[in-house]
């Protein structure tokens, strides 16, 4: 038998480490592979969206919900009556497979109540409609804006006078990535 040069370890062969740490296998839908690879390759440079994570409601936490509503004006007598328990997963998430949490990274939507570091709950399964707050991808950069649909087409409105609206032009990559359904804001 002749000796083969095939097989075995070869210098420079195999996958090259991109990071100096252990890696982890992640299962994603086949239809999303290219999109996710493109996102991972996109250089991060002060985009308005920071830290996109898929929502994974693995725990169930029920929080007591008081039956009485709180007055924003003149206070009313308090009632110590708990109506039921509220699960935040059920309250915030309608389609867990298409829901992501995204952190805002600018003040362009300040007048809509979205501040820097607010967590935006984004549902990709919803079809965006006029006046929805959406996550859009424009030339491979994410932004959060209000979708305006008019006779000329659709454009993105900033909810802060210090920021420009975005009117996509021909040849520009423009995609509505998802609809913002909730904002999670910390006060303390």
From TrEMBL:
InterPro entries: LexA-like, LexA/Signal_pep-like_sf, LexA_repressor, Peptidase_S24_S26A/B/C. Residues 66-180 form the Peptidase S24/S26A/S26B/S26C domain. SUPFAM superfamilies: LexA/Signal peptidase. It comes from the Bacteria. It holds the Pfam family Peptidase_S24. This is LexA family protein. It comes from Acinetobacter albensis.
């Amino acid at each position: 038998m002749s000796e083969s040069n095939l097989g075995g370890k070869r210098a420079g062969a195999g996958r090259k480490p991109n990071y100096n740490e252990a890696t982890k296998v992640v299962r994603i839908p086949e239809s999303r592979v290219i999109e996710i690879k493109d996102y991972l390759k996109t250089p991060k440079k002060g985009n308005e969206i920071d830290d996109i994570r898929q929502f994974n409601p693995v725990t169930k936490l029920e929080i007591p919900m008081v039956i009485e509503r709180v007055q924003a004006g003149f206070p009313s007598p308090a009632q110590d009556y708990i109506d039921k328990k509220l699960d935040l997963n059920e309250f915030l998430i309608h389609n867990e497979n298409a829901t992501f949490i995204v952190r805002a990274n600018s003040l362009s939507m300040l007048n809509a109540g979205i501040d820097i570091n607010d967590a935006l709950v984004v549902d990709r399964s919803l079809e965006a409609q006029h006046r929805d707050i959406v996550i859009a991808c424009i030339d491979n950069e994410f932004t959060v804006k209000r979708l305006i649909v008019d006779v000329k087409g659709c454009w993105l409105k900033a909810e802060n006078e210090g920021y420009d609206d975005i009117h996509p032009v021909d040849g520009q990559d423009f995609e509505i990535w998802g609809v913002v359904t909730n904002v999670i804001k910390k006060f303390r």
